[in-house]
Design a protein that fits this description.
This protein is 36% helix and 13% strand. By secondary structure, it is α/β, with parallel strands linked by helices. Strands 3-4-5-6-7-8-9-10 form an eight-stranded parallel β-barrel, surrounded by four helices. It has a two-stranded antiparallel ribbon with strand order 1-2. Helix 1 packs parallel to helix 11 and helix 5 packs parallel to helix 6. The radius of gyration is 19 Å and the shape is globular. It starts with a strand and ends in an 8-residue tail after the last helix. Pfam families: Aldo_ket_red (PF00248). GO terms for molecular function: oxidoreductase activity. Keywords: NADP, Oxidoreductase. Belongs to the shaker potassium channel beta subunit family.
Length: 337
């Protein structure tokens, strides 16, 4: 079964594997399959479920809410996010203004079928809204009982520091960051993780399998597998493109002996690897089939010996992205329209 870890310096525990429904619920898979995946997660001991209002333009929240009906609410941790455009995408339908946050939390709660979310996250940093306005709105959401804790996603170290300081002044806890992190994408290690450790902020990491590349199913010189994320025209292919280089794919294949030594698949090795970082509270997994959930949770509780961690580093070598500046460079420079 899946273990649980404290989220930052808070008293909240979340499952070390979080089930997320980005790019699946409401878009890639039918609702019946989505519900089966959620049930598989529950059966495996996963209690933490992550979504966002922007996923499938709010539909993913509704699908998750329906899938969790009948479950004891107190036994779940439900996470959602706000920032990206939703609805008809009018001038105030995006960003972290007070207006958008207060309206978005109400919409998310209605779609999820719950009175509160355990963690409400700023899905990106809003360069066009004063941070004081954003954090005051989050403080009010917490005081109204609509969210228990506040987190962010893909914020830089400086943004985390500023947001954390304001949250303390306003009387609530900023306890988490949700960045991309994998064996191939380690940009948070240089600045974000050290700052987070200092501030009591934990990481809930997405794409631990690098959009599926670390599963080993993409082989250099061979056609892309039919039905894979790399062939998904609804958005999946956009995010995986940076990893679909022959030099990267060849190095991934060289990790098979490491996975075999641990009795893991390559995908399980990838999830287990991110969980070795003591600042990571949970790894986000998605699934288009219940069997994928069952397989991924086998990474929980695995301890990778230091010599094998060093071997992974040696195999991957210079195909790993370490540049901490990538967090800022990949962030939106203006509020999305």
């Amino acid at each position: 079964m899946v273990n649980h870890r404290f989220l930052g310096s808070s008293g909240l525990k979340i499952s070390e594997i979080t089930y997320g429904n980005w790019l699946t619920h409401g878009s890639q898979v039918e609702n019946e399959t989505a519900t089966a995946c959620v049930q598989a997660a529950l059966d495996a001991g996963i209690t933490t479920f992550d979504t966002a209002d922007v996923y499938a333009n709010t539909v993913a929240e509704s699908v998750l809410g329906d899938a969790l009906k009948g479950q004891r609410r107190e036994s779940l941790e439900i996470l959602t996010k706000v920032y990206w455009p939703t609805g008809p995408k009018g001038p105030n339908d995006a960003g972290l203004s007070r207006k958008h946050i207060m309206e978005s939390i109400n919409g998310s709660l209605e779609r999820l079928g719950t009175d509160y979310v355990d963690l409400y996250q700023a899905h990106r940093y809003d360069t066009e809204t004063p941070l004081e306005e954003t954090m005051q709105a989050f403080a009010d959401v917490v005081r109204q009982g609509k969210a228990l804790y506040i987190g962010v996603s893909e914020w830089t170290a400086d943004q985390l520091r500023a947001g954390h300081a304001l949250s303390r002044e306003l009387g609530f806890q900023l306890i988490s960051n949700q960045p991309q992190y994998s064996m191939l994408w380690r940009v948070i290690e240089g600045e974000v993780v050290p700052t987070s450790r200092e501030l009591g902020i934990a990481q809930i990491v997405f794409s631990p399998v690098a959009q599926g590349v670390l599963s080993g199913k993409y082989v250099p010189g061979e056609p892309l597998p039919a039905g894979s994320r790399a062939t998904d025209e609804k958005g999946g292919s956009t995010f995986i493109r940076r990893f679909l280089r022959d030099d990267v794919l060849a190095r991934v294949q060289e990790l098979r002996p490491v996975a075999d030594q641990l009795g893991l698949t390559l995908a399980q090795l990838a999830v287990a690897w991110v969980l070795q970082n003591d600042n990571v509270a949970s790894a986000l997994i998605g699934a288009s089939r219940p069997e994928q959930v069952v397989e991924n949770v086998k990474a929980a509780g695995v301890e990778i010996p230091a010599e094998l961690l060093a071997r992974i580093d040696a195999v991957l070598g210079d195909v790993v992205e370490h540049d901490p500046g990538m967090t800022a460079r990949n962030a939106p420079q203006a509020r999305p329209a």
